[in-house]
Amino acid sequence: MNIWQGFEPATLIALSICIPFIGAILVIATGKSPNLREASTLAIAALLFTIVLAITDLTFSGVGQRLDLIEVFPQLTISFSVEPLGVLFALVASFLWIITTIYAIGYMRGHNEKNQTRFFCCFALAISSVMAICFSDNLLTLFIFYEVLTLSTYPLVTHAGNDAAKKGGRIYLGILLGTSVAFLLFAILGTYSLTGTLDFKAGGIFDASHSKLVLSCLLVLFCYGIGKAAIMPFHRWLPAAMVAPTPVSALLHAVAVVKAGVFSILKVMIYIFGLDMLKELSTTDVMLYIGATTVLLSSCIAMTKDNLKARLAYSTVSQLSYIVVGALLATSIASAGAAMHIATHAVGKITLFFCAGAIMVASHKKNISDMVGLGRQMPITMTAFAIGAISIIGLPPMAGTWSKWYLVLGALEADKLFIVAVLMISSLLNIAYLLPIPVKAFFYPQEGQNTPWDKHDIKEAPLPMLLALTITSMGCLALFFYPQPLLDLINLIPGISTQLDGGR
Predict the structure, then answer these.
(1) Geometric angle at alpha carbon 251, from 267 and 154, rounded to 5°
(2) Rounded to the nearest 10 degrees, how much is the dihedral formed by the CA atoms of 352, 304, 407, 504?
(3) Can you tell me where the transmembrane regions are (predicted)?
(4) Is 34 exposed, middle or buried (0-12, 13-18, 19+ CB in 10 A)?
(5) 298 neighbors 236 (Cβ within 8 angstroms)
(6) Per the confidence metrics, is the pTM higher than 0.85?
(7) 20 to 30 A from 221, CA-CA: which of 71, 283, 362, 385?
């Protein structure tokens, strides 16, 4: 039974944004009782997911959903509306908030972290801003909550409070706010001056009357202004933020920040420029080359990193540019692949970060070179890592296979064979820097062992952490065998539905 049946669509949108905010207040109110605080967080996260499911049902039923709040300027209103791409992002974020909360409970307690109440509070505020980004009806609304997300996650990045955390926080805040002010704000102002509107519209809001040169410049401003997409050279904030606790890394890399960046780029390409207009702009190919370069260079850098979180950070930089490349290919099937990669990368990468945190809590190891033979002691964790790695690589039977398949098809449709080559080379690089980790953990002996199977005490991470990484690793499998719900939702996105036949 749908508990939200009978609620007005506008009410559901409001609740999806307000419920996490209420959750933040509850966290503060129950801060002196850790059990109650964490139970409240879990309950709010589960409640949010049911609301997003109700919104999803209405979307499939074709019911219009809109909420207008405040008219800031004439014809410029803080408004929210529901469209399929936003629903996809909201489903990913709300579901993974539940799993990340379970994981964080085990991590924060197992690692004896300080300031846990502040952590869970800022986490909830970040999810609230993510929901607002998902359902933004125009660029003004998106910009406001995009910045709120940056500010709400800053205390999470600097959670440790040491010099390294403060330095990482400065880089994080400096690059993300700097790109927004220097590029994104001017892109939005330029769009408004040309069209008189900032509304997202199927097919885009630009037409043949607008100067292609001006639009080409705007495209560059948007791509670099949305700094959370981590296109080189504005990517350093992401590795710098790895000083944060692992649940924060999971939030940054899978649930909220980076996905808000690539989601925003994809939404701007589809609903502001439109795929047809993108094909005519001179800078589309320029940004496509830069995105492809980011894919390869960040993969090469990842191979040089011995610290596991640093390697995963540069892997994320690479994987995000898959989505940027998919958007800039300006074909229906590539856009579908980019949209799907939001979900498939999320479950794969969050699994890897969950495993990295579990290894640190249970064995206090951070460097890959110290993890040789660890599979005998932590078989569940390292098996989950192997599953997440295979999904990120894009090999069957894991979720990442589908999104990479559609990206390759989109590149072929656009007659961009060099992008096909980039995707293939990148997958080989993924194999080179990810698969040796579980292989060495299972099949190489630790120092002092005769074989990798010498008996040692099994020392897995706390149960909540194991539960979370098991669920997400199973999600990698589930989305390979049952991608249909995602495909059905992607088929509803204007302009790309005719290219997909339910994955068949």
Answers:
(1) 95
(2) -40
(3) 12-30, 42-64, 84-105, 117-133, 169-193, 213-231, 251-274, 320-340, 346-363, 384-405, 417-443, 463-482
(4) middle
(5) no
(6) yes
(7) 71
Least Cα distance to 329 among 420, 213, 235, 206 occurs for 420
Helices (H) and strands (E) in the chain, counts: 21, 2
Residue owning tokens 């199977």: 453
Residues 477-490 have pLDDT tens digits of 999 999 999 999 99
Helix (H) or strand (E) holding 38: helix 34-60
Rg, the chain, Cα only: 22
Q: For residue 157, which phi and psi values (nearest 5 degrees)? A: -65, -40
CA distance readout (Å), 421 to 296, 407, 424:
11, 12, 5
For 230, half-sphere exposure in the C-beta direction (CA atoms, 13 angstrom radius) is 30
Q: What is the pLDDT of residues 340-363, one digit of tens each?
A: 999 999 999 999 999 999 999 888
List alpha helices for 246-378, DSSP H: 246-250, 257-268, 275-278, 282-304, 308-328, 332-363
3-class SS at 51? helix
Beta strands in 104-172 (DSSP E): none
Q: CA end-to-end span of the chain, whole Å?
A: 31
DSSP 410: H
